[in-house]
């Protein structure tokens, strides 16, 4: 299936002074809502599982599913800007799973063409803004990138080189990725390190494996947002922590994901964080009560 390249160039990646993408003008009530939410804890690292593009295309009688992916991409540029408004330091996107290669040949080809067009435009804009250093985001790509077409791999290498060590905000794009594949490649990498003696002799094997993972340098994962369904699809599983909050918008397709949905997820994150702090305080209090009871019991036993 051939796709219209001009259609995909209507709203390209645009790196703005804000450090993410082209700054949008928000209505005063949105700015007020963001100001209120920023009074509470803001997740530093948020991961998005962007699901529902194909269903959106079918529900809105689009000519093909690629139009749904195009609309999903346009919505992504808005979401990234909202994340910058809110103050999120790191965003990880589940852009293309290894399992997605099982889709129809025409859809996979169309997605690869879309990625090539957008990354080419992004690279061009980054190169133009490099001297002025107007881009302040480090863009990283995770996944088994050897599975991608050579042109896309070349673009990825160039984008990462230009944005390396740029600012304190990060955009991680997962392509040809699953957590199980990441772990498999990390184990293989650790074995090679050990065999070549290029590792700290005092390090445990588990630590070496962790260092070989794509997501090793990521901030702790604070929140995962998934649209359309309630499942994790083998995504970032090695980076989950006890405080990682899972937010599912089951009735929202990715092209429909709005600023209100993002703010709703952050409010839910804040509530869960407060509940976690409260739970830890209760556990600590119960421990203190137990120790006091234990000391009294010992004194009584001595008598």
UniProtKB/TrEMBL annotation:
GO MF annotation list: ditrans,polycis-polyprenyl diphosphate synthase [(2E,6E)-farnesyl diphosphate specific] activity
Instruction: List, alphabetically, the InterPro entries matched.
Output: UPP_synth-like, UPP_synth-like_sf
Question: What CDD domains has UniProt attached to this entry?
Answer: Cis_IPPS
- Its GO biological process terms? polyprenol biosynthetic process
**Reactions catalysed, as given in the entry:** n isopentenyl diphosphate + (2E,6E)-farnesyl diphosphate = a di-trans,poly-cis-polyprenyl diphosphate + n diphosphate
EC number(s) per entry? 2.5.1.-
User: A Pfam family matched by this chain, by name?
Assistant: Prenyltransf
Q: Name one GO cellular component term.
A: dehydrodolichyl diphosphate synthase complex
Q: Which UniProt keywords are present, listed alphabetically? A: Transferase
Q: Which family does it belong to?
A: Belongs to the UPP synthase family.
Question: What name is this protein filed under?
Answer: Alkyl transferase
Q: Which organism is it from?
A: Meloidogyne javanica
């Amino acid at each position: 299936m051939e796709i219209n390249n001009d259609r995909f160039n209507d709203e390209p990646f645009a790196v703005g002074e804000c450090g993410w993408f082209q700054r949008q003008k928000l209505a005063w009530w949105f700015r007020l809502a963001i100001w209120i939410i920023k009074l509470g804890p803001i997740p530093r690292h948020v991961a998005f599982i962007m699901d529902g593009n194909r269903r959106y295309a079918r529900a809105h009688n689009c000519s093909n599913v690629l139009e749904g992916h195009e609309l999903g991409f346009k919505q992504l540029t808005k979401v990234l800007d909202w994340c910058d408004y809110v103050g999120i330091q790191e965003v990880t996107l589940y852009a293309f799973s290894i399992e997605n290669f099982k889709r129809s040949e025409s859809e996979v080809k169309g997605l690869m063409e879309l990625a090539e067009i957008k990354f080419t435009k992004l690279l061009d804009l980054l190169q133009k803004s490099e001297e002025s250093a107007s881009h302040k985001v480090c863009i990283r790509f995770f996944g088994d990138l050897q599975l991608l077409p050579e042109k896309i791999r070349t673009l990825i290498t160039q984008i990462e080189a230009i944005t390396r060590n740029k600012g304190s905000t990060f955009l991680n794009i997962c392509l040809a990725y699953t957590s199980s594949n990441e772990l498999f490649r990390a184990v293989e990498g650790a074995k090679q390190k050990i065999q070549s003696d290029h590792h700290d002799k005092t390090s445990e094997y588990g630590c070496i494996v962790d260092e070989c993972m794509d997501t090793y340098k990521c901030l702790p994962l604070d929140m995962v947002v998934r649209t359309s369904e309630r499942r994790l699809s083998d995504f970032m599983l090695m980076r989950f922590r006890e405080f990682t909050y899972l937010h599912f918008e089951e009735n929202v397709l990715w092209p429909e994901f709005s600023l209100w949905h993002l703010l709703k997820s952050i409010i839910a994150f804040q509530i869960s964080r407060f509940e976690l702090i409260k739970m830890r305080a209760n556990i600590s209090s119960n421990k203190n009560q137990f120790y006091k009871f234990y000391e009294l019991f010992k004194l009584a036993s001595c008598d």
